[in-house]
Model the fold of this input.
Amino acid sequence: MSTPATAAATAAPASVEIKAPESLKKPPQCIRPCTVGRAECHYYNRTDEVSGVERDNDFRYPKKLPSKEDVIAEAQRCLKCQDPPCCRGCPSQVRVDQMMGHLSEGNWYAAAKVLFTHNPLGYTCGLLCPTNHACRGACTLNNSMLGAININTCQAATAEVFAHMNIPQIRNPAIPETANLNAKIAMVGCGPASMSCATYLARLGYKNITIMEKQPFAGGIPAIEIPQFRIPYQVTAFEVRMMQDLGVQIQYNQALGRDFTLQALKDQGFDAVFVGVGFPAANSIPVFKKAGPLSNVWNSKDFLSAVANATKPGMMPAATPLPRLDGHVLIVGAGDVASDVCLTAFRCGAKKVTMCFRRGHVDMRCNEDEAEGLRREKVEFISCGSPKSLRVVDGKVTALEVDVMNKELDGKYVVDHGQNRWIECDYIITALGSQIGADVFAPATIDQKTWSIACNKETMQCTGLDWCYTGGDCAGSAAIIEAVNDGKVAAWNMHRMLCQKFSIPTPPICMQVPPFMTPVDLVSTGIQVGPLRFVNPFGLASGPGTENAIMIKRAFKAGWGWAVTKTFQPDKDMLPNLTPRIVGVGRANEFQNIELNSERNMSYWLAEIPKIKKEYPDRVLIAAIHCKGTLDEWKDLATRIAATGVDGLQINMGCPNLGEHAARPFVRPWPATALLVLFFSIHPALLSVPIPLARPLISSPPTLQTDIVRETLAAITSVVHIPCMPKLGPHQGDVVALARAAREGGAWGISGINTIPGVYRVNPDASVWPSVGGVWAFGGVSGAQTKPFALHAVAAIKAALPDMPILACGGIQGPASALEFIHMGAGALQICSAEMQWGQGLVDTLQDGLRYHLYSQGREDLRSWNGQYPPQLRAARLPVKFGPFEAKQRAVRPAAPPATTTHPPPFPPNPHPSFPLCSLCSFDQAEIEECLHEAQPAHRAAEMVQRFTQTARPVATPVTLEHEVGRSLPQMRPFGDLDTAIKTISEVDMTRCVGCGRCQMACMDAGYACISFDRTTRQPKISPACKGCGLCVAVCPVHCISTVPAPAKKN
Done:
């Protein structure tokens, strides 16, 4: 299926000359008249507005699809507010903040888990939900210049990625077996409300749920009345499949009032019934009722249903012909359905589409986002026009007469008598809403005021019927997301009713949302590290998050596997903390602090540690201790703490914040002269600046001696018999030598790295931040900026001492970075800075991300993804066009030979024949061509539907966490062993290149001048002389450059 624009581009001869403005040959700095500027602007125009006339028979998704990088960047803008208003604004209360937090770290599985926990139809709602009046409208960032987060786009992308994972939904195996779970439950209609209700009931453990559906397919209104270009049927099929994963049964071709009644279901032994049918009949007005049937007049329900049957592959057993329109099509109505009809009319052949409605533009019922889509496709508008009469010729309408409406000061619209107009047209489609139709709902009653089923809106229980519940259109809900929430509310209250009926303890009125679960959630993340068993490898590092016992208990309750107390010391060594003492950029996870040890005294920790261990016996608790005294004082401190039942001791011997407060007998200060030489070599201009130092460099970071580490650990391990480990950092010297000395002293493992001494910011007035009373000292830098140093330390220690456990710390902020440390050899991980920024809930994304990785390594298809994003989606995100500029470029490129394929219709030629296609994806030429111009052709859409409805699911055998520890180390080699004979060059994937030229600038100014840039076509070209340094790969903002093996040189 090719559009006229595509066909024109394909047919264009290769000899067409690009008429670029002559001014493009001059540097952009040259002075130019406005006429030249306008010509260049017109030439480079990339505005992607396609008239509806060009979309004849084109049912592809019309909006630009986000790439992986787009979604992650958008999610990183989210503030993750306390009591987020976006969640309050969502009718189904999706935890948008949590979803965005997972997405910002590339944790697609965890984001999908949050989404589907609160909204089983999250994919549908991501495409259709009017978020500008819900979550997006409530977003805190509406107050900013960039505006609210594009929540619906991120939501749809999350669901799409999860759909490609092909992971089934499962029941929670921990649900106890009770009598009520065998109750028979019937759902009437398989639309959003019923699917939501059935899903939540199945998650609660109910096993006997049956849905009666009138159509031969499932999905309700999104399937039968919303066009394919807005919601492809594979989306509906995916969500139906997820529901069926839980054991829900569907009986097709069963209509209420025709094949059964509500009372009949009750008599057949169903303990509860949910009615979730859509409004089946279209509204009309007298002018159309009087005219009777006319061959060229449709109502929206009949028209959209006919189009859906013809254009949604996999939905109907046999597709029906697409309704064909021509000429001028007049749409009567201005709601969301009317907007769908307008856009669909263009795709059915209309040459002109006009929307006529009785109100003014400012009062259109159509959502603002949808109205913008109408404008972009060039739909005409006639406002303030109320239909009055029809001109009928030979059984066909040729014109519609409308009265002009005036808006009064009170906001009411009244007919302006004496003013009317005739609108000539070839077809009329009315979109005036829908109605409940025939009353087939007995014994449920119809509310005569709202013309919906009478029910208690708090519980969705039908009035007077304790066994019958309702939701969706027939209950008066106006949007799909509201129908989803109706089903959720009804499911919980139905559950409470059934518990009472079967004499089961009744749960509270406040709903406890049953979570979305998959086999991934059953994967164990526990690991045995020596004598310590961690329920999961994620622990809180010694820091502000473990200042007291209450915070540690809250962390364990939240799911953290272990914790290290904030460093404490004998009471005689306690020091007061400074204020302020923490600075940084939280959203970048970068901090510096001049904080000292715990402000709690020794007796506090001696009393609280046993209480923590008693309440959480399965969690590992390690005490971080520090002492300024002799070896005997170290022994006494360690003995007293070990007696509390703590699992291990962390020996803090080199915190950069301690300075002169460190353990004096065991510290050798950095030479002051060396520091001065280093300082002035960096800032030679400061040699003439007088620097008053009352106490010269008194806060210089200490350097540990290996013999001191050995002696200290030997003294401590001689009196205690629990795991002991020093906390080391790169500022303390050679970490490998220090770790080796620690092992010789009896240390069980290594904790590292500590914060790194640094200066965070120097202000223009020469003041340094943080400062106390105008003076400053070196502080400890932590967070993402320390990760490269921490990874180096972990890898170096593990390579030198492979049998020594490492409890790693330093820049871990998400599952991806956590996995990096595990692959470098860390058995357990400590998090501090990221927890300071995002709170203790961070453990959820860490856990879910690690579980998904272990699961995916047990499935061959997922193992090849190299992360959580499917490579087939990366290929599908190739840009279809870049507006008029790209259309001109495509028209003049030489055509490639047609691809050999059995898939109809034929694919367009390669638009970039002189450049290689994406070398990162394992797709053949035909598949890439298809992605370029046919985002979702009919045969591929049918394949997706078949995939989402197939019975077999892939089976995974997850690997253990021990299997992943140190996986990267076998590939580590000394620098001198790297093979200089291996040569690579850079390769540009022109299907993704946006023409910014950043690669050429970098290569010219800091590389080997091997990239040229054509200003006319805005395409970079890499010279065969490329050295393969990788600079262009690093600076490319859209990740369209990769390094590939260099071609063999010819003799």
Remarks:
- The first helix runs from residue 4 to 11.
